[in-house]
Write a structure and sequence with these properties.
There is one protein chain. By secondary structure, this protein is mainly alpha-helical. The protein has a single domain, classed as MetI-like (MetI-like fold, Orthogonal Bundle). Helices cover about 70% and strands about 0% of the residues. It has ten helices and no strands. Helix 4 crosses helix 6. The chain is elongated and about 75 Å long. It starts with 7 loop residues before the first helix and ends in a 26-residue tail after the last helix.
Amino acid sequence: MTAPPDDCLARNDWICGDYLTTRRQILLDAVGQHVRLTVVSVALGLVIALPLALLARRLRWTAGPVLGATTVLYTIPSLAMFSLLLPVYGLSATLVVVGLALYSLTLLVRNILAGLDGVPAEAKEAARGMGYGPLRQLLTVELPLAVPAAMAGLRIATVSAVALTTVGAIVGYGGLGNLIYAGMNSFFKAQVLTASVLCVLLAVAFDVLLLGAERLLTPWRRPARSARPARGRRPLSASGRRG
């Protein structure tokens, strides 16, 4: 009997360090494409969602149709969505970007609208009392106070986009999804596992970055640091003596 090969690639192991070293550039290109597709699609969704949320808030009769339409878009299966967009955009990265942007609308519109509706009436009254016009009140008072709810929707939409980007492999623009689908077709274990793990890490990284951005944009929500007495000095008692 011949001994099994020592090369993990030849053995087709699930965990293989040789795969990482020999396919490094392929992995970097796939991660780069995945990140670009995710960021561009979510940014496009945000650009569309903000005016829709403002419209639904200003004209209340439009809230039902806007939320209903975005919900219907979210229920369309990804393969069907890409097939519907195919005659317009062809086999291109734009097809994937537009599809992912449409999926993000329901999460972004609902959360932005919920954040705007949750702004305390006292804050708006105080802004009007200070002479703020509608636009200045929106930009400096209402939108900043709506950031927590909006960021919650943005985080979910971004993580969802990371997962859905892999479906773009059916048109050749799926980032890490290209490697996953190719690895499944050839039963290349190391490629399937490595690309899948990288997808999870990307989702976690995006979520952590957006959570950090939310903390920077909402400093008033950070817990206040309690004052501590100076080291080496005990606090004074009621009689004026040190306890």
